[in-house]
Amino acid sequence: MKTFVPTEGAIKKQWHIIDAEGQVLGRVAAEAAKLLRGKYKPEYTPFLDCGDPVIIINAAKIKVTGTKMEQKAYYRHSGYPGGLKEIRLGTMMRKHPTRALELAIKGMLPGNRLGRKLARQFRIYADGNHPHEAQNPVPFEIK
Residue 58 is part of a domain; what is its CATH number? Predict the structure, then answer.
């Protein structure tokens, strides 16, 4: 018996929309990464793009548990000596309300060219409006 491997064109894509209002940051990111990878589909193949595009709305109203809003820090480095930059989650949510969720989702995707391709297939909006009505997104409930 031969192993079935689907082709990229044979995989059906269905847009999903996630309302992040009142949801925990990590749970929304984990569900979005699962949808992007396609791990819930029976024809899932680890080296192919089997997943579905995802739209996340109300990202500014997402919550975190504990004291993460004051204590969790994101770091980046400019490449120059002394170029380490740090920003707290609370400050990031005020300045760029979608960036924390974007970084969480990207961190859950593979670190190769497939992950970079999947990282272009999700959209995050700070409020409830989005311009993707033509894609007929299906609401996705996080349990």
Answer: 3.90.1180.10
**Domain membership of residue 111 as a residue range:** 13-64+96-139
pLDDT of residue 1: 87
Cα–Cα dist 59/63, whole Å: 9
User: What is 88-99 written as a DSSP string?
Assistant: EHHHHHHH-TTH
Q: State the amino acid at position 81 in one-letter form.
A: P
Other CB atoms within 10 Å distance of the CB of residue 26: 15
Q: How many CA atoms lie within 13 A of 70 on its CB side?
A: 2
Q: What value, to the nearest 5°, has the Cα angle with vertex 57 and ends 50 and 27?
A: 65
Coil vs helix vs strand at 135: helix
| Cβ contact 140:35 at 8 Å | yes
pLDDT, mean of residues 73-78: 97
Q: Is 75 helix (H, G, I), strand (E, B) or coil?
A: strand
The pLDDT, as a whole number, for residue 76 is: 96
Angle in degrees, CA 51, 44, 56, rounded to 5: 20
Q: Please give the pLDDT value at position 3.
A: 87
How many residues in total does the chain contain?
143
